């Protein structure tokens, strides 16, 4: 499936002239900044497509952090482009570049993808930023220099992390050959288009993909071998039952929404750039909630790897429905229990758990706001479903509350609905 981007097509005939030796004209910089921000945006989406294939939680959490970092970088570049061009339009720099990014993302394994994407594409991207910095004029381009000096170390750190992950994985001979094969394909492809900046002459013909794709957006999600999945979300592990610790376990379980959210992030064609800026932060926040829970459980003396966590291997296919349920049910309906737990923690002197709940409430408020901002355009643009937000929520309630008599289903308020689906048997009395 070809990923589409809802932006104007634009073919540049002048790419070779974009990076001169001593200065770069404004019109060349507009194209260059547009190209770099396009690559960051695509990179964030492609990485999202591979998060469900990452087996270890540490890989999932780090990759989602990079998705957010890349979108933040892309947003800063977009602002600079707007200053230079007087408009915020993002265009596809060239058909060839778009195809390269799509094709080299279709690797046959997680590690093959990591090798091609980070050690070849991203290494070329770092070199491109450095080249750009090198030809900037210290006075004309001071704002750009400031920006590039902020971006380059971040991208280098991403590379270092990916290098470690790959280095550990290639100790297995089959993984080594699969990574090598994909890296060599990616390297040749980059030579074919003259690098990400397309400034060199093409040095070879277009290479043929050496393997069948496994991802992005694999048909099965990967999870760690050690994970005990034998639990449901509203059945708390016995050792926490009847205590406030249940809440910390619940934060730890938030890792289970990351893969589904990444399927949505990758699959949401035809949504504007700003949606991905918001949604990358949303995903990274959920990872932080997981990390907050894991940290607190460890401080309490538990080994989070020994605790059961609900997890599913199924991919998410109904992307819009997932986003609707996540924001207007899962998140909107979580505030009263979270607020009560926060007050109970503070009252009993457990400051870190109290802060965990309070920070989570802060984040959830913006997630619900994102949902309210994007649900209508998402349903309307992608499904031709022009219902208002109110009507979308009503439809969701009716779907979930099948067992209620029709009249009640139609009249129940969003708030009362939340009360009905709240977790049972929560205890706020004991730490
Ligand atoms: Fe959360
Ligand atoms: Fe959230």
From TrEMBL:
InterPro entries, per database record: DUF455
Stated name of the protein: DUF455 family protein
Native organism taxonomy: Bacteria, Bacillati, Bacillota, Bacilli, Bacillales
């Amino acid at each position: 499936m070809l990923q589409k981007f809802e932006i104007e097509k634009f073919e540049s005939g002048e790419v070779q002239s974009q990076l001169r030796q001593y200065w770069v004209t404004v019109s060349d910089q507009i194209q260059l900044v547009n190209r770099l921000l396009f690559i960051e945006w695509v990179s964030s989406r492609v990485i999202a497509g591979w998060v469900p294939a990452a087996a270890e939680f540490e890989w999932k959490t780090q990759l989602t952090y990079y998705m957010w970092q890349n979108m933040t970088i892309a947003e800063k570049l977009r602002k600079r482009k707007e200053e230079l061009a007087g408009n915020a339009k993002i265009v596809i720099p060239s058909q060839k570049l778009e195809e390269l990014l799509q094709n080299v993302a279709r690797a046959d394994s997680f590690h093959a993808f990591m090798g091609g994407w980070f050690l070849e594409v991203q290494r070329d991207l770092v070199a491109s930023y450095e080249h750009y910095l090198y030809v900037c004029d210290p006075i004309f381009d001071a704002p750009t220099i400031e920006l590039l000096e902020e971006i380059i170390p971040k991208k280098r750190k991403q590379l270092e992390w990916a290098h470690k992950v790959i280095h550990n994985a290639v100790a297995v001979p089959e993984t080594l050959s699969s990574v090598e094969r994909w890296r060599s394909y990616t390297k040749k492809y980059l030579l074919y288009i003259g690098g990400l900046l397309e400034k060199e002459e093409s040095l070879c013909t277009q290479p043929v993909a050496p393997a069948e794709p496994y991802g992005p957006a694999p048909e099965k999600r990967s999870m760690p071998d050690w994970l005990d999945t034998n639990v449901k979300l509203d059945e708390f592990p016995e050792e926490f039952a009847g205590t406030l610790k249940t809440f910390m376990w619940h934060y730890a379980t938030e890792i289970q929404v990351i893969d589904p959210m990444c399927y949505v992030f990758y699959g949401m064609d035809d949504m504007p750039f700003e949606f991905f800026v918001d949604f990358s932060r949303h995903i990274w926040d959920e990872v932080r909630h997981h990390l907050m829970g894991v940290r607190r459980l460890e401080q309490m003396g538990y080994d989070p790897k020994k605790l059961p966590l609900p997890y599913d291997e199924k991919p998410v296919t109904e992307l819009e429905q997932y986003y609707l349920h996540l924001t207007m049910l899962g998140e909107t309906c979580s505030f009263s229990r979270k607020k009560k737990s926060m007050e109970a923690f503070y009252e009993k002197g457990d400051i870190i758990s109290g802060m965990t709940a309070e920070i989570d409430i802060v984040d959830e408020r913006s997630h619900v706001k994102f949902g309210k901002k994007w649900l209508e355009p998402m349903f309307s643009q992608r499904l031709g479903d022009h219902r208002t937000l109110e009507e979308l929520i009503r439809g969701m309630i009716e779907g979930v509350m099948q067992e209620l008599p029709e009249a009640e289903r139609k009249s129940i308020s969003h708030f009362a609905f939340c009360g009905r689906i709240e977790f049972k048997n929560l205890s706020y009395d004991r730490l």
